[in-house]
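User: Structure with coenzyme A, tokens only please.
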Amino acid sequence: MSDIKIRKGQAGDVEAVSHLLKETWRATYRNIYSAEQIRDLTGRWHNPEIIQRQLGDDGSRFLVAELDDGVIAGHLLARLRADNTILLTRLYVRPDAQGRGIGKMLYQHMLSVFPDAKSIELEVEPQNTKALGFYHALGFVNTGRTNSCGGDSDIPALIMERLL
Ligand SMILES: CC(C)(COP(=O)(O)OP(=O)(O)OC[C@H]1O[C@@H](n2cnc3c(N)ncnc32)[C@H](O)[C@@H]1OP(=O)(O)O)[C@@H](O)C(=O)NCCC(=O)NCCS
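Assistant:
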């Protein structure tokens, strides 16, 4: 396996992260959501303007996993809330790079960025068995549900939490 570097995102990563999210979203959700839903959500959530704004947000931590050939293979976005809990907004690894430890490396790097946080919360699609298995393996438990994943959609999600 080639070397993998976890680092903060930079302005030059915006297009690559947008592309990674769109590609990984299609692969992950194509049997769960309609093509129209995927187009709509990735168009709204993963367009370069939005990614650029998130990259510049001081309150968030925007991480990328870079392979030694410069390819961006993974991305994580998280922020520390006022109650000292982490909201893990996004964790995506390109389909051809999954299962090689990159998701866990991004996750562990995030923990080191917020050493005093007391818990982590995230939302996950109930049919996304791969992600559910990953989060369960990391010690997350289900704590509830929402009918509006991300707060601005009409798709359901499980809420998961891990105490630190
Ligand atoms: C879910 C995802 C982020 C995991 O990242 P990954 O790089 O594929 O996972 P890793 O290789 O880092 O796995 C880390 C650990 O989790 C375990 N794991 C991963 N997937 C698992 C599964 N489905 N069931 C059980 N354990 C799993 C691995 O065995 C590994 O354990 P180890 O450290 O003891 O060896 C990645 O597969 C992905 O991007 N999926 C598509 C997008 C997605 O669903 N994102 C989450 C949205 S909420």
